[in-house]
Structure formats: structure tokens, C-alpha cells
Specification:
This protein is mainly β. Helices cover 13% and strands 52% of the residues.
Length: 69
């Protein structure tokens, strides 16, 4: 969901394995974000919502910024 210059993503991790990489999985989620030309994102906040039905649920709040500097 995009609101002005922020994108909010619900991220659910069903199972965590010994070789699970939180950073790599987060990077994969960030790569799914649709952006307009000249935009990039930075993480504003990562919120652990809790566990439901053996799944960990997070909200990722991203700031959309101009990639032109």
C-alpha cells in the first residue's frame, strides 16, 4: 500500500530454518516493490507485529525518495 511518499508492506515469515537469512529475505521483499522511474526506497521502520498461526508478521514502512542526487 502506498501513501504519498511511503510504502507499507505486510511481511509474513511462515517458518524459520537454521540457514534462514533475515537480511537476505528482507532484501527479496524490497526487490518486489514497484517504483516509478527516478525513485528508490529506504527503510523507515520495521515493526514486529507478532506471531499468528506459527507465522511471524512484520510491517515494513519504506520512504520513497528520488534517486536523482
Amino acid at each position: 500500500m502506498r501513501i504519498n511518499n511511503q510504502i507499507v508492506i505486510e511481511w509474513t515469515i511462515a517458518r524459520v530454518h537454521e540457514n534462514f537469512s533475515f537480511a537476505k529475505s528482507l532484501d527479496n521483499v524490497l526487490n518486489t516493490v514497484s517504483l516509478n522511474e527516478g525513485e528508490k526506497v529506504e527503510i523507515h521502520q520495521l515493526v514486529n507485529v507478532g506471531e499468528f498461526n506459527n507465522e511471524k508478521v512484520y510491517l515494513i514502512i519504506l520512504n520513497v525518495i528520488s534517486s536523482k542526487e
